[in-house]
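It is worth pausing here to work through a concrete case rather than discussing structure prediction in the abstract. The textbook approach is simple: state the sequence, then state the predicted structure, then interpret. We follow exactly that order.
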Amino acid sequence: MSELQAEAGDFEEVEFEEIAETEQPDESEASELAPEKEEKVSFTEEQQRVIDDIVAKKTYKMREAERQAEEYQRKLADLEAKQPKETRPEVPALPDPYDDDYAEKIRQRDEVIARRVEFDARQRMTQEQERQKAEQAQYQKQKDLEKQVDSYAKRAVQLGVSKEDLAQAGQEVARFGIGDDIATFIIGNDQGPLITKYLAANPTELDVIARLDSISAAVRIETIIKPKAAQLGKRKPTAPDPVETLSGVGANPTKGPKGATFE
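Step two, the predicted structure:
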């Protein structure tokens, strides 16, 4: 290597080192330029064990509930599949008396007839039980309705609606043929008598209610009609209380300034 090449090599090495030292930021600048790292929350081993235990227990309960629900559905499906759907036995026709197995066929036919009689008896029993349940439910429904009507009449008195006015308003509302659900809703409402009275006096509104489904009618009654109907109730008197009359001995009319006279 020539002396000129050696000197050039030394120059390039020095220049590179100076540039590297000049461009490299100090530690404070580097910390500012570096992206912020998300602070990681750490737990002690004991805390982590507690957390893992809680998560495991909750996960187990969820899985167990799901498993039990699936098991229940599976058993129910299996039970329904295994449950024979009983049908009314069909009695075969009388066999030919000349058949060799005539006696056996007669015996089998008699067995089918007996099963058919038992089937019909079970069907009648089931129908009777269903009828009794329906009658009991209807009876209970009627008793509940009677209680509601009795409470409805008592509220009418408290709200200042006479028995005659309530009966007349009720007939007018019933004439529009509102559904049983809507009627029950009105009877059970705390402002029911006033709502009935308001609807009877406003046939246009009553016609709207009669045309709505039960839910929409209940919403309209509660939000629009009830506030207006409440104004028909008893109003507190606005006149002031009478002035209290004072009693007792008043001023002596014989006393007064000298020369004064009292008539």
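Step three, interpretation. DSSP finds nine helices and no strands in the chain. The longest helix spans residues 102-158.
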